[in-house]
Protein 1
Amino acid sequence: MNWCRYQDGDQVVYGIIDGDTVRAAIGSPFEGGFATGEPRPLSDVSLRLPCIPPTFYAAGANYRAHLAWAAENLGGSGKAPPRADIGYRANNSLVAHGENIVIPRDSSGVVQVEGELAAVIGKTVKHLTPENALDCVLGYTIGNDVSERTWQSSDRTLWRAKNTDTFNPMGPWITSGLDPEALEVTTRINGVEASRYQTKDMIFSLVNFLVETTKYVTLYAGDVMWMGCDGETPVIKAGDVVEIEIPEIGVLRNPVVRG
Amino acid sequence: MNWCRYQDGDQVVYGIIDGDTVRAAIGSPFEGGFATGEPRPLSDVSLRLPCIPPTFYAAGANYRAHLAWAAENLGGSGKAPPRADIGYRANNSLVAHGENIVIPRDSSGVVQVEGELAAVIGKTVKHLTPENALDCVLGYTIGNDVSERTWQSSDRTLWRAKNTDTFNPMGPWITSGLDPEALEVTTRINGVEASRYQTKDMIFSLVNFLVETTKYVTLYAGDVMWMGCDGETPVIKAGDVVEIEIPEIGVLRNPVVRG
């Protein structure tokens, strides 16, 4: 099932997608919502963020080929972290499918994209076990962790390198019923493939992150956990269009402009 | 004016405090809310978090004596950061005035408290200037950035060291009309003073953080920015009661228990 959020007049509503159509929902996917009303063409609606996370978690360094690339290009040891220590991104940086990625005018460095699988938490949970961890996941969407590499090296925190407004596109919608370790993530710049990797190559699995994180932290409905990316990370510049595709979910597409 | 949030039957409502009484509000402080109904004794209501931040910002290292202390006790250079690079905390860790700080059973390290001034943003803003920056601040509350020092040293991120559930008490309410650089922050453990410092000693002022952050980041109503703490940070253990006082605001009091 695919849950989305879209603009309906002056309201943002949840909807359930069926093929090329969408039907407005009563309630949200987090409280047993269900579809109602007439189907309308999906192409007629303006998609919004599929959820607004109470907390926005990010695995960060979680694939070996990306660590090796980062060690060569950004510094760092290239070694895998010893434990599944979760990190964070900030909500101000989220934009929906179709919205612009805006590179600030004073960015003088390289800006790159990191296409990622993102898990959407469906309910309040703590102390998950390997056996029940995935039961809290409502579904999966796609994230693009846009990164300004000069600021990533120079700043004390990742605040502007990875959390500048518009630097975290997420969408297009939430798809349930997937195996998070059996997906392929492809990034295209202006229609040309620039990166492709398999989520089976994660260093720490989603189950591992969920179990470790919830030893200390309660997860809530709508929280998202982005799982990191593998390999090289393509450069973007104003005028480009970035697409991240996970075929079982769809395509997250965002144009790039200069601020 | 003091704005609070409290439990009223099965609802959490905003209220306006007048001396020892509180009156329920229509609307929130972020949308021109105003007091209504009869005053009731403040001691009769159960306070909740004064707001739920869309994003929870934290200045981190922002006082010289704390940097010197941290260099000696946690490692680090002791040097002031070159710029006002903001950091983050996570909403799961917030608890209200009066709620327990729960030290996880498997914490084998020292747990300490950091009493802080916290600014509450009142409206959507970007590109603030030194002249207008403080106009976006609705008021101020008190934060206690509880820190597990072993995890702070061992982990790749601050996730459990500073964001374990209950590790960020905030309250008791929001007070408007204050000068953020003219306040004194006192920490008491079981009624005994353990730390005292002046907010005039901040390395980067709130104005500086607001101007720098909003070059890249939009702030929203309800966002909070915690300003760091100075000097030593008192140790807590199960059975203690921690009080952080800023006289112009009030006292944030939380008991400590073991998980």
Protein 2
Amino acid sequence: MGYNPKVGAIAASLIRAIAAKKTPDSIDLGLGEPTLLPQQRFIDAAARWAAVHGLRYTVNAGDHALRERIAAHYAYPGMNAARNVCITTGSQEAVYVAIKTLLDPAADEMLVVTPAFPAYAKIAQLEGVAHRQLDLAEDDDFRYDVDRILDALGPSTRLLVIGSPANPTGRILRDAQARRLAAGLLDRAGPPIWVLQDEIYRELTYIDDAGFVANYYPHTIVANSLSKSNALTGMRLGWLIAPDDPIEQLVKTHSWVTATANTFAQRVAYEIFGEPGALQEQGAWYRERHALVEAALAASGLRYVPVDGAFYACVRIPDGSDSLAAALELVERRGVVAIPGRIFGDTLEGWLRLTWVAPLDQFEEGLSRIAAL
Amino acid sequence: MGYNPKVGAIAASLIRAIAAKKTPDSIDLGLGEPTLLPQQRFIDAAARWAAVHGLRYTVNAGDHALRERIAAHYAYPGMNAARNVCITTGSQEAVYVAIKTLLDPAADEMLVVTPAFPAYAKIAQLEGVAHRQLDLAEDDDFRYDVDRILDALGPSTRLLVIGSPANPTGRILRDAQARRLAAGLLDRAGPPIWVLQDEIYRELTYIDDAGFVANYYPHTIVANSLSKSNALTGMRLGWLIAPDDPIEQLVKTHSWVTATANTFAQRVAYEIFGEPGALQEQGAWYRERHALVEAALAASGLRYVPVDGAFYACVRIPDGSDSLAAALELVERRGVVAIPGRIFGDTLEGWLRLTWVAPLDQFEEGLSRIAAL
């Protein structure tokens, strides 16, 4: 029987293939989600609200009062009203809707700054959109490099995708870099280029000058969610923030893909955005753990990327090793789940991504088994 | 700035244009959702579960235990195992994923039996898939007609979409018709045709012999959700059931569109599918109301389609009237929100769709104002 060939062409997930080999005794450093529990008071408040109001549809873009709170919280110039926000099913749907809406598959190209979360490229592939990678340099420890990003834009590039804080490297675009990127984009001849910044790790940073392009560049679309900041990966509550014109188009796509976001999840988000500090509350745990993780990395003897944000650490495997082979060796014979770097872009081949939300002694034991490869 | 032209080409929703004119005094017969409250015990149970387990990601296809319960509940031949179910963000995502996955935009055509929920055609338009309508006959009160459906299949038709019980007409494919449709499809030469049956109103029926194609035809994909049966429109919990081969492809698409469904919503569904009768509990209210609604329709003097299922009634406006003009007249000057038939297919021009979940006296008053048009 027939299928859409674009769906058929997508390969099975390497992450899943590795996760499938996990045993109950494995040290799991492969997870992409927090191990903390969510703040139960918000879930209980939403349950009490549902008992009175039921769980009806909101309008397609999401509950107006929630959108107002989100818009006001981030207060990005030119997109700080409720109408600039669309609530989505996690940041996955936010990114999906953005790529699908902003690009003409017949003409436009997307440029992704890598190493990056593989979903951007997979979505482009599914939508038939041409995409290229700008590989940040291994010998610069994968720091953002604005000049190289600007140089990489081509005549048909219409969307630049930046995940910052970055999964997998934890690298963060700095404020001065966001300004320079905006200036460079505005100076360019030709039609303006959209920037999609995936800010899903923005509450988990260990530096003081994280940069957000939406503060400086008027053609920015922001994707974010409560998944990482509030240990709510399973709540699937994300959003897009965009200027007036694109948001209308984005809401249209969203309305045919999922209709509306979950009303219960929206109520949880409404409570979180209504309590000052609730978005940042779990950040203290990550900052404390981060200091211990950096010490463990330094003690491991492994080469690693200093962790500016998020909850991952990238470590180098021996020169000439293949990251998939190393990940399979680790999971099959050494009891450690780690993600091969290659899935985040060619530039991360030769590396592994480790999550450090498991108990610290497990992280340390995992590092020593990797160091013994 | 540029966009995907397929998104740009989609017109704004007529339903929303009419809803926007609603005032606090309007009689709202335009709603597409229950007015009952959901069964709070399931929401509270999920909140208690979350307090212990958190709300982590499930695997892409959804929680295995929930999928097992759903598969066993419907027990469709060849698709009665957990692996045959994919949990989605409402039936909207289920339908979106099915159309996107099953059809090659370069070669395949989708046939929709109309009058029908407009999303099927809008999704095809968004995906660049050719689509045609098979209009059920007004002079047959829009009954399903299997011979006409089979005759309408063309050489490039690869997906037949049937919503039964139907939104907007409430018509239901009968069991004998489902058998005949399956036999006709199996007898056809050429590559087999997928059938997508949208069963979202299956718990709200007022006849005894509703037909489900998946019982008889091995290339059926089923979409359904808890939205209508359990007054959980805002919970966005839907699913696809499909044979082994297509389900793998469907899960792949789903994993890039929304990653996974909401874990809280999945837990609510797990509780509902674990309590015998919980899916049907609210059906009693609809059956009682249905008898009163049929009496009110008969007394109104309006021509109407007998209601076999769902919670809508289609009524004829005076010959030669335009359904959009009538809906605007009603909302702007007569205080009634009704949906113009034309959005459900050309064959329903000259009709209005009314929802009958509002208080009965309001429904009766709405009917009398429509009769005075």
